[in-house]
Design a protein that fits this description.
Length: about 260
Amino acid sequence: MGFLQDKRILIVGIASNRSIAWGVAEAMHREGAELALTYQTEKLKKRVDAAAEKFGAKIVLPLDVSNDEQIAELFGTLEKEWGHLDGIVHSVGFAPRDHLDGSYLDNLTRDGFALAHDISAYSFAALAKAGRPLMQGRNAALITMSYLGAVRTVPNYNVMGVAKASLEANVRYIADSLGPEGIRVNGISAGPIRTLAASGIKDFKSMLDEAEQKNPMRRNVTIQEVGNTAAFLCSDLASGITGDIVYVDSGYHIVGMV
Ligand code: NAD
Ligand code: 0WE
């Protein structure tokens, strides 16, 4: 029997079979969870349908996290279909592409800042708020995906780093809000992985190379490794862990000099 047997978990953020959320779905399915998946746009639906087929998910629904009506509709459907929820995985981030290049202040706009924070940080709180009634009395867990740029400057990561700092603070405040209800909230700070979100980022290859050369393991992490950690954090094996950020980065963040 898997360690997520009979848990019903919502996964937001699959865009391809390279997505971190794909690795999460794979691990959670293997451990016995029943999954509901969402897709951001009609163009991405077929990729998410492929995941649903592979991981036995019967519920596949549209969700653009900037749309309050869609959030309400999603949880309405989950209430009708499942009646309750044991976990939510948030694996979503976005900033305007021109903000992820060059010097932070040079390319920063009020609108870019607001959009990055809305999609990458507020949306986690929005899902927590909307999912809360369905998670009562079930030892449920929420997981989100962060990056080292939240706590250190990383060239070109810019406003995404500021939004990830907000996301990580959200992890702590939501953990404090929901702790009395038995709901745990954690983040995973993943090392660089080649996904759609990474494609088109200037010099991403050199970032992968640098991480590979400098981390203690001398190799980069996989979506399977992030997925296994998410599955653990969502499970009752992690019953004492909340409000924390777990690094799945081959130890890159501990290194001061190589
Ligand atoms: P990905 O492109 O596969 O996933 C990003 C997801 O965000 C996509 O599924 C996309 O549809 C979704 N998304 C964007 N805007 C949305 C919106 N308005 N509504 C709903 N969904 C929206 O890339 P990924 O690397 O798997 O990214 C997942 C998470 O992992 C992100 O939060 C990212 O910041 C984080 N992360 C990525 C890396 C990396 O190197 N790839 C490292 C650390 C953290
Ligand atoms: O969080 C991310 C990337 C998130 C992301 C990616 C894009 C590309 C397409 C957010 N918004 C957009 N907007 C787009 O238009 N990562 C952790 C991966 C990543 O992105 C970087 C990195 C790393 C690592 C950008 C600059 C420097 C490092």
